[in-house]
Structure formats: structure tokens, C-alpha cells
């Protein structure tokens, strides 16, 4: 993302400041916050954006243009990180773009004798639910080798966060008739959120549902530590506390 005009770089830095301010408003910790009076220092720059040539008042990296990634693509960009958000400053590399979520697909046409599954993602229980920025869930159906059996879908960003829950209340239409899913297949739910300090979307935890769990009604499934283990070989629960993803299933049969 080369900047062709000096003011484009300034605009990108202003965008960084706005993201930092947004993160500060959503966080309950008060250290290193980007304050309102800091934001006010940007006003003269905005007024004279075409001619502004002084030193930028904050040491921030320009926000890279958020490239839209194919579903699951940011997984390959991810690196080990601490869950305690320390260390990395605002100047992380430009190579971790975030994806704009919300790629839900319509229900498939019904076929005689075949069953379609709609999963309503109600909510997810997390101890720091309120601090997640732009949280969404990526839903995929994988075989035992972790190969996609259907297109990957992203929910829109969560509706609301309260106490220890992030609420979605969104329907996912599974893109294959249940009878056509291979033995040992599983439906994965990866909970993702944007990390302003690292400038990219990160998977926080994941959950999955196996074929024998497909039945109408409510179900709660456990949350596991990342990275997502699509082969289900080395599973570790996210915490000792019981934390769950709350779902509701509807089966449609001709």
C-alpha cells in the first residue's frame, strides 16, 4: 500500500488514531488510552490536510487499507501471541489485513428425502466478552483431514456484548444436505476479533459439532484453545471454567 500523496499517509495515521480511540472506549483498562484531548489535536491537521507538512503529533503507523481476505485466509498469517495484550506497539507490519465479515449464504433448495440444517448461533460465553472488538464467527464444515466440504461462511459482527456473553442471534444455512456429509465430518465455529495493536483479525477460540450432535433443538458446545485443530487431534479446553457456544438447530426435511 504505497501512498501516492503525502496527505494520504496523514489520513492513514489519523485512521490509526481513530481506531486507537475506538479501542480505548471499548476497553475497561485505563492505561495507554487514546484520550479525547489527544483526538482534538488532530482537528487542525484535518482542516489543512492538503497543505499539512509538520511532524505528525503521535508516533503511530498508518493503518494499512484493510484488504478483504478469502474466508480462512488470515489463519495463515497468524502467529503465536499472548492473550495478555502486551508488548506489540501500534507499529505492527502491514501484512495482517482484517477481513470484513458477513458472508452468509442462502438455504439450498430442498430435495425429496434430504435434510438441510439451519444453525442459529445464539451467543458465546467469554470472561472478557466486553473487550472483544468487531467479534464474529467463521463457520466451516470439514472432513477428518480438515478439508472443506462446503463454502466457509462468516457471521456479521456480533449484535451486542453484555456481561460474559457476546450475542449473535444469526442463522447459518449449512451448504450441504446432511445425508451427503462424509462420515467423521464436523462443523467448526471459530470466534474471531480485531486486534488494533496488531492490526489484524485473530482467532480467540473455537468449537465444533460432530455429526451425532445434529438434532433439532438447543445445544451448548465447549470452547477450545486456538490454533483451530480441524483434525481434532490435540484439543485443549479454553479455560478450566466451563465456557460454551450456545446454538439452536433446525432440521428441514422434504
UniProtKB/TrEMBL annotation:
<keyword id="KW-0217">Developmental protein</keyword>
<dbReference type="InterPro" id="IPR025939">
    <property type="entry name" value="Aida_C"/>
</dbReference>
<feature type="region of interest" description="Disordered">
    <location>
        <begin position="76"/>
        <end position="103"/>
    </location>
</feature>
<dbReference type="GO" id="GO:0016020">
    <property type="term" value="C:membrane"/>
</dbReference>
<dbReference type="InterPro" id="IPR036818">
    <property type="entry name" value="AIDA_N_sf"/>
</dbReference>
<dbReference type="InterPro" id="IPR035892">
    <property type="entry name" value="C2_domain_sf"/>
</dbReference>
<dbReference type="Pfam" id="PF14186">
    <property type="entry name" value="Aida_C2"/>
</dbReference>
<protein>
    <submittedName>
        <fullName>AIDA protein</fullName>
    </submittedName>
</protein>
<dbReference type="InterPro" id="IPR023421">
    <property type="entry name" value="AIDA_N"/>
</dbReference>
<dbReference type="Pfam" id="PF08910">
    <property type="entry name" value="Aida_N"/>
</dbReference>
<feature type="compositionally biased region" description="Acidic residues">
    <location>
        <begin position="76"/>
        <end position="86"/>
    </location>
</feature>
<comment type="similarity">
    <text>Belongs to the AIDA family.</text>
</comment>
<dbReference type="GO" id="GO:0048264">
    <property type="term" value="P:determination of ventral identity"/>
</dbReference>
<dbReference type="GO" id="GO:0035091">
    <property type="term" value="F:phosphatidylinositol binding"/>
</dbReference>
<comment type="function">
    <text>Acts as a ventralizing factor during embryogenesis. Inhibits axin-mediated JNK activation by binding axin and disrupting axin homodimerization. This in turn antagonizes a Wnt/beta-catenin-independent dorsalization pathway activated by AXIN/JNK-signaling.</text>
</comment>
<feature type="domain" description="C2 Aida-type">
    <location>
        <begin position="105"/>
        <end position="252"/>
    </location>
</feature>
Amino acid at each position: 500500500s504505497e501512498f501516492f500523496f503525502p496527505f494520504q499517509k496523514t489520513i492513514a495515521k489519523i485512521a490509526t488514531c481513530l481506531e486507537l480511540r475506538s479501542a480505548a472506549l471499548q476497553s475497561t483498562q485505563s492505561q495507554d488510552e487514546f484520550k479525547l484531548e489527544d483526538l482534538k489535536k488532530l482537528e487542525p491537521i484535518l482542516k489543512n490536510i492538503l497543505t499539512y507538512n509538520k511532524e505528525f503529533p503521535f508516533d503511530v503507523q498508518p493503518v494499512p487499507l484493510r484488504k478483504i481476505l478469502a474466508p480462512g485466509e488470515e489463519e495463515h498469517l497468524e502467529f503465536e501471541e499472548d492473550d495478555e495484550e502486551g508488548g506489540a506497539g501500534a507499529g505492527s507490519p502491514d501484512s495482517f489485513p482484517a477481513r470484513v465479515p458477513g458472508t452468509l449464504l442462502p438455504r439450498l433448495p430442498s430435495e425429496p428425502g434430504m435434510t438441510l440444517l439451519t444453525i442459529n448461533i445464539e451467543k458465546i460465553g467469554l470472561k472478557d466478552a466486553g473487550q472483544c472488538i468487531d467479534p464474529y464467527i467463521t463457520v466451516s464444515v470439514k472432513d477428518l483431514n480438515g478439508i472443506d466440504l462446503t463454502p466457509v461462511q462468516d457471521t456479521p459482527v456480533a449484535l451486542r456484548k453484555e456481561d460474559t456473553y457476546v450475542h449473535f442471534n444469526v442463522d447459518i444455512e449449512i451448504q450441504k444436505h446432511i445425508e451427503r456429509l462424509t462420515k467423521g465430518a464436523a462443523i467448526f465455529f471459530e470466534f474471531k476479533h480485531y486486534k488494533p495493536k496488531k492490526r489484524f483479525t485473530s482467532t480467540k477460540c473455537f468449537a465444533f459439532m460432530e455429526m451425532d450432535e445434529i438434532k433439532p433443538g438447543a445445544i451448548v458446545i465447549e470452547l477450545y484453545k486456538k490454533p483451530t485443530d480441524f483434525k481434532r487431534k490435540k484439543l485443549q479446553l479454553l479455560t478450566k471454567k466451563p465456557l460454551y457456544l450456545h446454538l439452536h438447530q433446525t432440521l428441514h426435511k422434504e
